[in-house]
Predict the 3D structure of the following.
Amino acid sequence: MPIRDTAFLIFADCSMLDFTGPLSAFDAANRVAGKTLYRLSLLSEPGGLIRSSAGALIQTERIGDAKFDTLLVAGGGAPREGLVSEALRSYIVRAAKRSRRIAGVCTGAFVLAAAGVLDGKRATTHWRVAAKLQKMHPKVLVDSDRIYSRDGSVWTSAGISAGIDLALALIEDDHGAELARAVARELVVYHRRPGGQSQFSALQEMDGGSERIRRALSFAREHLQQDLTVDALAEVACLSRRQFDRAFTAETGQTPAKAIEQMRAEAARIRIEESSDSLEQIARASGFGDAERMRRACMRLFGQPPQTLRRLARGHEEQAAA
């Protein structure tokens, strides 16, 4: 069985866990197997010491002509802001052609997108910057609600701990589920979260600090089909409209209107992806009233219209069954 040369490309201001998480998974695979399955390298554009966002210095090799079986591109300040040099773009293009597979962790997807590697492909990234990725690179089919995504030889994942899920999936792809499970046990993590699991959900995560705002949020979740005006929610919270508006925004970080739109969009997305109901039926059931309002909300929050979300979900299901 060949040793797979696996490299991590990192940047200044990188999040340590974006690369140390998956790096540790491959290292654990070597230990569990009792032999070298993966030969690991750390790369950067300039080479030498790279400072992470936490201030730690990481020794790297300079990008060059070395060929790798797998190249994983981690996130960092440069990718997030789109500051990708021409030399780096050229390197990624070459690597995508020469490597068996290429992957982006978190905002590493921005580097792959800048090089055109993600054009026409499904990809994910950290939910906080997914809309930015879609806006900067409209040819990419951004799916902001996946832990990781695979489209042919190109893999991408959400940020932070999702890089471990990506690495476990790569290990399973190489050596089977038994080794991937053993590595997960070694790391004391799940084997492995499904790639389609949601990164973040306002339906579950949004909460208020006070009992009154929590009561209003709970009411909204249970009555999305109703006309959830600010006055109606303020009445549930037993506050004046002005008091409610101010308290809600302070405690949730969103206006009531934006929060309700996000709840409805997420409720609609579940039915779009998992049911065969028409878009008009889903729009009415989730409180949007009509499909066009639902479409605009999906574009704002997920970067894709409902038809594309449904097509992507069907694609993931077919891929999983293959």
User: Anything to note?
Assistant: Strands lie at 4-9, 38-44, 48-51, 57-62, 70-73, 101-105, 122-123, 141-142, 148-151, 154-157.
